[in-house]
């Protein structure tokens, strides 16, 4: 596996138009820009005229396994993030209900890691390359402004890793949990100089290894991850940042269970899964380069470049009798994806009729070349059939997808109280497929499609006082079918599903934010109407086909509270009410008009209380509630509602001002609740349920040394 890569992410604007969340009320030049950290940049969640949540890296790592993003993002309103207990299929993440149809990876959400998209040009993303041990902060942007990142409808998740600083620090960490789960990691960070002089260098390098036997049968996994970030100040007005990331995942795939199977034994797998040894391996390596230059007192230039390669091999539990059909692509998927891109952006600050104005314009180009092959998941020799091994080729195609998106953003500080942000992106997404596997009974399935959309967004904010503001925003989102969604037709015939149309969403949002002492209270209500929403049509044996559902509507209320009190005490709470329904028939012969969109909880709640001084004993507890979730379009099958409780406690030492030790233990699902962790939408065999583990325990230790 080889890679050439360059590009990094830009904060003061956005990989697609706005660099992620955070907007400054007192400086129009910083409006709708992502900050390195809220504290260091002066930007804050309070002043951003959009629904945005920021979770610090320290919070992500606090008394946590540091394996999955789902561990400490539960308190983000509007985000439904669930661990499938299946590392072959990644986390299941949806924002305001977008992404719930995904049977693996991310859909409907744009994700960036240090500015490099973890979402491909077609809208398919993954979280496996995120190193929690080196996260500086995670930003989650929901609502209309997320459309300005391009091919997504629900939101944007931005992960920024730490920038090295003095003193040089070495860290080693280990964690052990139930079901034979281990995670070991190391990290080194530091800097020469303070970053303000030519030749100053900063660096953060980390590596980790995770292994588990898995909660369920046939669910073992291992993941090796490396991440590096190197920054150099070239001169007084320019900097260069080099990024590198590599991940290897090897995981078994336990699949889903029917309700009866779950009630009988939630840890079991169906016989076909074991017979065909369902599993997946992933190898991804990428690199990026980000150049920033202050061209003048009022002008900044940013150039971000990246490239990478991702190789995936997946063995599916599809019966051999189905695979022998001349038009069937087989039970083994082999993918090699080469991706690269460049985003060039210019920002100019000025005044117009005494009004401070910032103008940002740029051009984003991304491309991905995929070589997709399919093989039978069995071999036959001398009348003996071996299953779970790569057999004869059944598919061979080359897919090319690219997007070319010019964009512009303006920020106006109209008065001391009023500010306006507005932007537009013109997104062009092109897909082209060349079929090289043409046989009797399997014709030429080549095809192409091109999609265009104008994506406007605007927000008007009023500052009631220095600690309280209100805003109204509106925008249009655009979501194309992914290559995987185009790969299989709903009628079971060969060929691409080119009848799929892109989904278009219009959102209007009202929000308010209030600083209360050392805390922040946020509220947002919204409505999103979508035409041609892409939904799962049927899912069988790990293979899912998709269709357009006509019209859908989402109405929601999101409340969030993050409050510190008594110096070392902190309470965090979130509540989401989301009514997501079909407004047209999505069930074929039966009408689903008015039914709930499957995969989406109507209500979610989180509450956490922690006592966390800088040193000494600390402890915390959290409660999570999830309402029932429909698993099919007809709403005949639902995963039951559940409430789970977690506890943690630990002790942190500082020894001779150089050594720091942090020892903790935790218990999750304290009351041993039997519940469904996630659902597989419209699973044709009725195996909708992916069970979550019962009561489980873990301990962890982190040791760091700072060179004083």
Radius of gyration: 25 Å
User: What does the average pLDDT come to?
Assistant: 88
What share of the residues lie within helices?
under 10%
Count of helical regions = 6
Q: Segments where pLDDT lies below 50 for 5+ residues?
A: 1-43
The global form is globular
Structural class: mainly beta
What's the N-to-C terminus distance? 40 Å
- How many E-type strands? 37
Q: Bin the strand percentage.
A: over 45%
- Sheet having the most strands: 22 strands, antiparallel, barrel
Question: How would you describe the overall organization of this protein?
Answer:
This protein is mainly β and 708 residues long. The protein is built from six helices and 37 strands. The strands form seven sheets. It has a 22-stranded antiparallel beta barrel. It starts with 37 loop residues before the first helix and ends with a strand.
């Amino acid at each position: 596996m080889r890679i050439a890569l360059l590009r990094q992410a830009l904060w003061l604007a956005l990989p697609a138009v706005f660099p992620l969340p955070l907007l400054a009320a007192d400086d129009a030049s910083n409006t709708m820009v992502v900050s390195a950290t809220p504290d260091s940049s002066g930007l804050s969640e309070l002043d951003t005229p959009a629904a945005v949540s920021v979770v610090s890296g320290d919070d992500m790592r606090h008394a946590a396994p540091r394996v999955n993003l789902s561990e400490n993002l539960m308190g983000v309103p509007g985000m439904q993030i669930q661990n499938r207990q299946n590392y072959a299929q990644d986390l299941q993440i949806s924002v305001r209900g977008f992404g719930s149809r995904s049977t693996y990876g991310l859909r409907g959400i744009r994700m960036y890691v240090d500015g490099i998209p973890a979402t491909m040009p077609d809208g398919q993303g993954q979280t496996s390359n995120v190193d929690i041990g080196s996260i500086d902060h995670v930003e989650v942007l929901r609502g209309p402004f997320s459309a300005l990142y391009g091919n997504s409808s629900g939101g944007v998740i931005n992960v920024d890793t730490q920038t090295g600083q003095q003193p040089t620090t070495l860290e080693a960490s280990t964690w052990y949990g139930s079901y034979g789960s281990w995670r070991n990691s190391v990290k080194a960070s530091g800097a020469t100089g303070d970053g303000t002089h030519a030749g100053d260098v900063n660096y953060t390098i980390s590596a980790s290894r995770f292994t588990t036997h898995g909660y369920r049968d046939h669910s073992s996994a291992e993941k090796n991850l490396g991440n590096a970030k190197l920054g150099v100040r070239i001169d007084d007005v320019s900097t260069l940042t080099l990024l590198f990331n590599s991940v290897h995942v090897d995981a078994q795939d336990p699949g889903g269970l029917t309700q009866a199977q779950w009630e009988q034994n939630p840890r079991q797998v169906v016989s076909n899964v074991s017979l065909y040894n369902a599993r997946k391996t992933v190898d991804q390596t990428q690199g990026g380069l980000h150049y920033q230059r202050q061209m003048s007192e009022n002008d900044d230039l940013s150039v971000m470049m990246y490239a990478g390669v991702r190789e995936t091999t997946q063995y599916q539990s599809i019966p051999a009798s189905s695979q022998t059909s001349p038009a069937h692509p087989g039970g083994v998927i082999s993918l090699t994806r080469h991706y690269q891109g460049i985003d060039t952006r210019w920002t100019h600050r000025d005044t117009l009729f005494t009004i401070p104005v910032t103008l940002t314009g740029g051009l984003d180009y991304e491309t991905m070349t995929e070589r997709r092959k399919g093989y039978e998941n069995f071999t036959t020799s001398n009348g003996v059939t071996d299953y779970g091994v790569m057999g004869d080729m059944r598919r061979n195609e080359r897919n090319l997808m690219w997007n070319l998106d010019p964009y512009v953003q303006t920020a106006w500080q109209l008065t001391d109280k009023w500010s306006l942000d507005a932007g537009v992106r013109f997104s062009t997404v092109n897909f082209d497929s060349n079929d090289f596997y043409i046989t009797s009974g399997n014709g030429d399935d080549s095809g192409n499609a091109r999609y265009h959309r104008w994506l406007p967004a605007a927000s008007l904010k009023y500052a009631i006082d220095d600690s309280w503001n209100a805003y109204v925003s509106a925008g249009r989102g655009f979501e194309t079918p992914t290559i995987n969604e185009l790969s299989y037709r709903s009628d079971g015939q060969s060929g691409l599903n080119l009848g799929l149309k892109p989904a278009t969403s219009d959102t209007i949002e009202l929000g308010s934010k209030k600083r209360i002492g050392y805390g922040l209270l946020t509220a947002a209500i919204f409505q999103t109407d979508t035409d041609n929403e892409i939904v799962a049509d049927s899912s069988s044996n790990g293979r899912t086909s998709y269709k357009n559902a006509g019209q859908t509507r989402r109405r929601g209320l999101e409340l969030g509270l993050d409050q510190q009190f008594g110096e070392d005490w902190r309470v965090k709470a979130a509540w989401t009410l989301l009514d997501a329904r079909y407004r047209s028939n999505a069930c074929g012969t039966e009408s689903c008009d008015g039914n709930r969109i499957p995969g989406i909880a109507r209500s979610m709640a989180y509450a956490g209380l922690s006592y966390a001084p800088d040193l000494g004993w600390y402890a915390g507890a959290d409660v999570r509630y999830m309402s029932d979730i429909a698993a099919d379009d007809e709403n005949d099958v639902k995963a039951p509602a559940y409430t789970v409780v977690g506890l943690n406690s630990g002790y942190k030492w500082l020894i001779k001002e150089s050594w720091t030790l942090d020892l903790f233990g935790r218990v999750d699902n304290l009351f041993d609740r039997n519940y469904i962790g996630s659902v597989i939408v419209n699973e044709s065999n009725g195996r909708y349920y992916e069970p979550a583990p019962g009561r489980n325990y873990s301990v962890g230790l982190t040791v760091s040394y700072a060179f004083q």
